[in-house]
């Protein structure tokens, strides 16, 4: 009876030990798993945090750099506009220069235009004064001025180009242009819009009519290709 | 005396080998249950040393305390009150008291043995 009781006692105690051991071991394993998981997640969290901070830093840097870039681009575009304006100005200046050079006779000019030929009138025995049908320098002046007014770019007398400071004087039987004598007939060539120049000279009561009135033989010819050499520099 | 120890070892082995996953919120109950079990165990040892050990009381107390602690924690979670703290407190205090009593009894026994 006693023996059985002891046995029974031990069986019950071992059951208690079994349950206790199981519970402790199970709980221990569970907690260990959890803490391990936590530890890993902690590490991961820290890593995530540091990465995120890095990312934020990078983004801030990026945005500040982007702002800087925008500013620089603004500056550059402003400068480009300025440059474009300057280029435009230079282009205009170059054009003007070319134009003025042309007027000054510094460059070779080529283009369409008209050629006017002024010849002395036929000898008329009735007329006492021979001057009445000779070409005078003021006739040449009229034609030249009219051509300039009508927009001629360059004018030449008998192939000698006129500059802004050219002079034409009557020198007895000849006229002198910039120191060179020219006899009649005078051929005045002008580069410009042939149609305009032609109609400017031919206008009723205009230069042609006046010249014809002075018994000068006036002939006008449109030419497609007139070339004028630059005026040589005076010594 | 080796049978309960064997039971304990087998229990530990089973506990370590089982691969049952329980949700995290239930691990609290298990901790409370372990506390209750330890309390009862030390209570039993003390009773044994004081010669007032009763197996029925011990075994019933062991399982009943485990269930009570677990259900108390469960109730606490569902009521929104941390009732498991009550169990932790109660069992913790009793655990320390029991161990203190055991220590004194052992000390007394040891000194009387030494005197002899």
Molecular structure report:
The complex is a heterodimer of chains A (235) and B (116). Chain A has 235 residues and is an alpha+beta fold. Chain A has a domain at 109-228: Protein of unknown function DUF881 (Alpha-Beta Plaits, 2-Layer Sandwich). Chain A contains four helices and eight strands, in the order αβαββββββααβ. Chain A has a five-stranded antiparallel β-sheet with strand order 3-2-7-1-8. In chain A, strands 4-5-6 form a three-stranded antiparallel β-sheet, covered by helices on one side. Chain A is rod-shaped. Chain B is built from four helices and no strands. Chain B is globular, with a radius of gyration of 17 Å. Chain B has one domain (24-115). The chains are: A alpha+beta (235), B mainly alpha (116). Chain A: Belongs to the UPF0749 family. Chain A: Keywords: Coiled coil. Chain A: Residues 48-82 form a coiled coil.
Largest sheet of chain B: none
Helix content of chain B: over 70%
Low-confidence stretches of chain B: none
Unreliably modeled segments of chain A = none
- Count of DSSP H/I helices of chain A: 4
Gyration radius of chain B, to the nearest Å? 17 Å
- The CATH homologous superfamily of the domain at 109-228 in chain A: Protein of unknown function DUF881
Rg for CA atoms of chain A = 54 Å
- The secondary-structure element order of chain B is HHHH
Number of helical stretches of at least 4 residues of chain B: 4
Largest interface (CB within 8 Å) is between: A-B, 24 and 33 residues
């Amino acid at each position: 009876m006693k023996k059985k009781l002891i046995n029974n006692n031990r069986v019950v105690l071992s059951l208690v030990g079994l349950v206790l051991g199981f519970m402790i071991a199970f709980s221990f394993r569970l907690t260990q798993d959890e803490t391990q998981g936590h530890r890993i997640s902690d590490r991961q969290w820290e890593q995530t945090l540091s990465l995120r901070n890095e990312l934020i830093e990078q983004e801030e840097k990026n945005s500040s750099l982007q702002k800087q870039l925008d500013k620089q681009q603004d500056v550059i575009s402003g400068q480009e506009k300025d440059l474009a304006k300057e280029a435009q100005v230079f282009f205009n200046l170059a054009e003007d220069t070319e134009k003025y050079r042309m007027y000054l006779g510094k460059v070779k000019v080529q283009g369409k235009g008209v050629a006017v030929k002024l010849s002395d009138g036929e000898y008329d025995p009735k007329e006492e004064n021979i001057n009445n049908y000779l070409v005078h320098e003021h006739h040449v002046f009229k034609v030249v001025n009219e051509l300039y007014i009508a927009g001629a770019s360059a004018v030449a007398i008998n192939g000698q180009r006129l500059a802004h400071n050219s002079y034409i004087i009557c020198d007895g039987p000849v006229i002198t242009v910039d120191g060179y004598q020219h006899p009649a007939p005078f051929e005045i060539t002008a580069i410009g819009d042939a149609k305009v120049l032609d109609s400017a000279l031919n206008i009723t009561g205009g230069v042609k009519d006046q010249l014809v009135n002075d018994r000068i033989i006036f002939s006008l010819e449109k030419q497609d290709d007139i070339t004028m050499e630059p005026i040589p520099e005076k010594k | 005396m080796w049978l309960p120890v064997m039971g304990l070892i087998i229990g530990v082995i089973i506990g370590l080998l089982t691969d049952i996953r329980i949700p995290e919120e239930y691990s609290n109950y298990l901790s409370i249950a372990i506390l209750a079990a330890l309390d009862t165990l030390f209570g039993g040892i003390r009773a044994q040393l004081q010669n007032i050990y009763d197996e029925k009381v011990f075994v019933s107390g062991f399982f009943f305390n485990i269930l009570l602690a677990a259900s108390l924690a469960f109730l606490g979670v569902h009521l929104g009150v941390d009732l498991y703290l009550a169990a932790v407190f109660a069992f913790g205090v009793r655990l320390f008291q029991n161990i203190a009593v055991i220590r004194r009894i052992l000390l007394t026994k040891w000194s009387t043995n030494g005197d002899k």
